[in-house]
From TrEMBL:
Region annotated Disordered, chain positions: 58-90
Keywords: Coiled coil, Membrane, Transmembrane, Transmembrane helix
TM regions (residue ranges): 116-141, 147-165, 177-195, 215-237, 301-322, 328-347, 368-390, 396-421
Coiled-coil residue windows: 591-672
Organism, as annotated: Polarella glacialis (Dinoflagellate)
Identification of the protein by name: Uncharacterized protein
């Protein structure tokens, strides 16, 4: 992939994303063309052209005009596109098919509050202890089959809660299972998803209170179920509080951007990168790519009708028909059965049914990519079937109904698993027009690693690892019957590679090349390989770009570049990638400096704001003091006036009394 150093803001964004942890990968869908070994060359051409197109779209940069090799690549790509058009547009069909079948999930792993985490770990320990004691018959436990199954699943859910809420450092080497859990169930990486799980397990334990054998187990179920539901509520509250804090911080960053606007447009772009880098550093990025695998038509039809029956009889049970007489646990399980049946109908129904209703099928796969695989769907069907097969109502009719539904679901799960782990010699899958396979291109320092993921819907034969060359040699052919000459050519190439690297091939799962007499092609349905067992991690130390597909003479005949050309392309790409990394590191350093300046400006702004608030508070206090003194003076004057008026009234009364006394004395003298 020809990578140019980033020069625009969009390229800077992409470079920082890749630097902080996003893998530099191009996803290409390669179509199967005709004519034997030419299809091998064409598949690798598809990878090169698609990766170059992905690089152009991501970095919005055209190849350097002075780079002759880039011009050759463009000419090579144009010829490849013409070949695709000539062969019926297989690349376009493959891209359209991959767009519908490929599910991509990008999210962050949320961390719970330490209090909620500690609470959930204690509850998980309580679930394990109570389940073990109950299975052993302690404290008067008289379990029925339903309670035994519930106790077993309680242990499973307790381990799940520990994996979700525990820190990766707690598990040591087992920490990879936490990431694996988040990979297959990304909905549990969010606090709302974990809250739903806690409420689900808690509600089941609360409903089991009706089946408690004595008061002790009634209290146990009440405590565990209530605490789990409370933990779910706390997780939801923590999620909304974190969202509010995140929005508040975002508004603060926007204000900082407004303050730094005078520094120039580049500073704003780099500050955006600082904010993004800080966000990526605080939360662990979760990126998942999974391809939706389909079950056999018979299994899908079988599961679809079972789901319809489960939903129908669960709804009937609520109306107490046929003397159902359910207890609270069975009513609650009926509600969950309706939800489970709805999910099964979406999974096993036609994908076109959901496209006009908001596409809930894709939403389910994004929330739980494990359901996109046969094993994940088998585990889901087995769980629903196992809890229904042991739910024994009092009525014989309902015992038969739930036993039949649960047993059918368990049987369907075994059929799904057997289709994955077993080589089906008589199974034939209809190919629409072409067979497609997905290629992932991962860039490393010294080589490019091409590998293939084969799925149950694809016929991919003779795809194996060259452990010293670092490539997967994928011989794919047109569904039309190949000629004997093509078969001999393919067999000779495979035999040569097997003789060189046979000791590494023996470690891979599946039939060995030495056991096959002739080449198998896509139109031969009597043999199908399950290649998901080919693990690349154990062979990474042996990889090097020392050899292309076949020998140099074969490379010339098939149109593939020779070894020297591959090495030159790798070296040039590594040099360009080094420039790109240096540009990204320079941008990050500049962003760090600007971030420090923004932090200093923010601190100065806070200091000025605090001084202004202190000055305003002092002025306000002075105004209040002046008003209080004026009010006191007014009160004092008022009191003085009141005292003077009182003295005047007293003097007037005294004068009136003296006048009356004089008048009385005058009247007495006159009388005398």
């Amino acid at each position: 992939v020809e990578v140019q150093p980033p020069s625009s803001a969009g390229a800077l964004q992409e470079s920082l994303e890749s630097t902080i942890g996003q893998k530099m990968a191009g996803v290409v869908a390669g179509g199967m063309l005709s004519n034997g070994m030419n299809s091998v060359a064409q598949v690798f051409l598809d990878v090169e052209v698609g990766a170059i197109d992905a690089g152009k779209d991501a970095f919005a940069e055209e190849p350097t005009s002075g780079d002759k090799q880039g011009e050759d690549d463009d000419a090579w790509g144009s010829k490849t596109q013409q070949d695709h058009v000539a062969n019926g547009g297989s690349l376009e069909k493959a891209e359209d098919f991959a767009e519908k079948g490929l599910v991509v999930v990008r999210s962050f792993i949320h961390k719970s509050h330490c209090t909620v985490t500690l609470m959930c770990l204690v509850i998980a320990a309580g679930l394990v202890a109570s389940s073990v004691i109950g299975i052993g018959g302690g404290f008067g436990a008289n379990f029925k089959p339903l309670q035994y199954v519930h106790a077993i699943y309680n242990i499973f859910f307790a381990g799940l809660i520990v994996l979700l809420d525990g820190e990766k450092s707690m598990f040591g080497r087992l920490g990879k299972y936490q990431l694996l859990l988040f990979h297959w169930l990304p909905c549990l990486s969010t606090m709302r998803g974990r809250a739903l799980l806690h409420v689900y397990v808690g509600s089941l334990n609360l409903a089991m209170m009706s089946n408690a054998s004595n008061f002790f187990w009634w209290v146990v179920y009440l405590s565990l179920g209530g605490c789990l539901c409370l933990a779910g509520v706390l997780l939801v509250a923590h999620h909304h509080a974190s969202a509010c804090c995140r929005r508040r911080k975002q508004r603060a960053v926007e204000r900082a951007h407004a303050m730094a606007k005078d520094a120039g447009g580049a500073s704003k772009e780099i500050s955006n990168q600082v904010h993004g880098a800080v966000a990526w550093g605080q939360a662990e990025v979760l990126e998942i790519r999974v391809f939706v695998r389909s079950n056999h038509f018979t299994v899908k039809l079988f599961c679809f009708f079972i789901a319809l029956g489960l939903m129908f009889f669960s709804i009937l049970g609520f109306f107490n028909l046929f003397h159902a007489l359910f207890n609270p646990f069975q009513y609650l399980l009926g509600v969950y059965n309706i939800m489970f049946a709805f999910v099964m109908l979406i999974l096993d129904g036609q994908a076109s049914w959901c496209e006009k209703c908001g596409d809930p099928r894709k939403k389910i796969f994004r929330a739980a990519p494990i359901l996109a695989s046969e094993v994940g769907r088998a585990a889901f069907h087995f769980y629903v079937g196992s809890i229904n097969i042991v739910m024994m109502p009092d009525s014989i009719f309902w015992q038969i109904v739930y036993g039949s539904l649960g047993g059918s679901l368990c049987l369907a799960s075994f059929l799904m698993v057997s289709a994955v782990v077993k080589i089906c010699p008589t199974e034939s899958i209809a190919l629409e027009a072409h067979a497609f396979c997905l290629f992932y291109t991962c860039a490393y320092d010294d080589f490019y690693l091409f590998y293939v993921e084969a799925y149950s819907d694809f016929y991919l034969f003779y795809a194996y690892l060259q452990s010293t060359a670092g490539h997967v040699l994928a011989l794919t052919f047109d569904p039309a019957a190949p000629s004997d000459q093509e078969g001999k050519l393919a067999q000779s190439v495979l035999s040569e590679e097997y003789e060189r690297h046979g000791e590494h091939m023996d470690t891979l799962r599946g039939p060995k090349l030495s056991e096959l007499n002739r080449a198998r092609f896509a139109n031969a349905p009597e043999l199908r390989f399950c290649l998901e067992g080919c693990k690349l991690s154990c062979l990474l130390t042996l990889l090097s770009p020392s050899r292309s597909v076949g020998s140099p003479s074969e490379a010339m005949s098939t149109g593939m570049p020779a070894d020297e050309d591959l090495m030159a392309r790798h070296q040039r790409t590594n040099a360009e990638a080094k420039k790109w990394r240096e540009a990204a590191e320079t941008a990050i350093s500049e962003a760090t400096v600007l971030g420090a300046e923004l932090e200093a400006l923010r601190r100065r702004h806070d200091s000025l704001r605090k001084r202004k608030e202190a000055r305003e508070e002092r002025h306000h206090h002075d105004a209040l003091s002046l008003a209080a003194s004026q009010a006191a003076e007014a009160v004092k004057v008022r009191l003085t006036n009141q005292e003077a008026m009182a003295r005047a009234r007293a003097e007037r009364r005294r004068l009136q009394e003296e006048l009356e006394l004089q008048r009385a004395a005058t009247e007495r003298r006159e009388q005398e």
